[in-house]
Amino acid sequence: MQISLRPISKVDFDFIYDVTKAAMKLYVEQTWGSWVDHEQRARVSATIDLSTHQIIEYKGKNIGCLALEHYPSHIQLTKLYLLPDFQRLGIGTFVLRQLIAEAKQTSKSIQVRVLAVNPARRFYEREGFVVQAQTDERIYMEYRSAG
Question: Does the reported pTM lie above 0.90?
Fold first, then answer.
């Protein structure tokens, strides 16, 4: 696959907002009732960190974003969002399997949370993630690396 990751810069903030909206708006509306554009834009902008975010490219085109936080015991996967036209093509699986390989090499687990209404839960379960906790709004999952 012609998939690559690149660091972000401030010029990517609008794209990260756009991909977040495209990937998450429906689930945010189902969970909290509405997507208020200016509030969501402010929330997304406040969470973008140049050191944790990357742009996912396919054949040189921006198609998604990935955000990871590295801790001594685990990797926190905070975003793996793809534009709808690039979902269900194996791209997310490819990116996630690269992350799983990294976790295995470093003997770390991977933690992720998904909105309870988001079918991404099945995606993570297929790749070996297990539910650790659940609230009405969110599901907390973990992949435990065998080392």
Answer: yes
